[in-house]
Amino acid sequence: MATMRMKKTMFPDAYLAESFAALQAVILVADIGINQIILEGNALQVVNDLLRDEENWGQAGLISMDTKAVSRNFQTFLVHHVNRASNVIAHTLAKDVLTIDDVLVELEDVPNCIGSLVDPIE
Q1: Is 34 left (phi over 0), alpha (psi -120 to 50) or beta?
Q2: Neighbours of 40 (CB within 10 A)
Q3: What domain of life is recorded for the organism (predicted)?
């Protein structure tokens, strides 16, 4: 398990921010050597961008095209839309970004902010 929290203030809308988050997720997974990924998100527009074969030349679309380019290196890359209630961990991590200054990556440790939301691995 790995988590990344990155403080960015450059996003004028949620669509762009969610597209950027998806890109950062696949880059992190690639960097740590995982070759199978299931990307879940509650931003339907981003999920649809990643599932479509067509090009989108808008700002968020360009980021999604980059995400798809990185994902071609994975053995398995699946994208699923989940409702917001199913994405509580991601939203809790996003809120916790307000407490950091830049980027925080944690490998094999569960961040304190989501400890009560994650089932312990036995």
Answers
A1: beta
A2: 16
A3: Eukaryota
Q: Are 20 and 8 a contacting pair, CB within 8 Å?
A: yes
Q: Let me know how long the chain is.
A: 122
Q: What is the pTM of this model?
A: 0.85
Residues 56-92: tens digit of each pLDDT? 999 999 999 999 999 999 999 999 999 988 888 888 9
- What are the DSSP calls for 15-75, one per residue? HHHHHHHHHHHHHHHHHTT--EEEEEES-HHHHHHHH--S---SHHHHHHHHHHHHHTTSS
